[in-house]
């Protein structure tokens, strides 16, 4: 399997997964919130989980937008930045006294997967680069355009 196919599959699966999680928190936070790993339900109506739902949905849409528009390098950088989110979630769960298995197994593993996908995307070479380089060697005036 080519690296490009692998990174496309990882990014698409990640986007689908986080969109599902985000929409689940927006539609039925009561049913999915216990899986987050914190020890109790937030005060009042659980607005914090609605915020998480919106955050996760937006993250998935950003990944899809970049992937569908072929912005693979930008996608790599976006995923590198987005890896902070599950890392933060892991630290929140651990700081709250939540279950370490959920903290490390869900949020920590997600952070590692997102960071690894980002690293793989950033290692990709653009397909058109060799042809453009060859053209600029023949005609240096083409370097700017």
Automatic annotation (TrEMBL):
The chain crosses the membrane at residues 7-28, 48-68, 75-95, 101-122. Keywords: Membrane, Transmembrane, Transmembrane helix. Pfam families: DUF4267. It comes from the Bacteria. This is Small membrane hydrophobic protein.
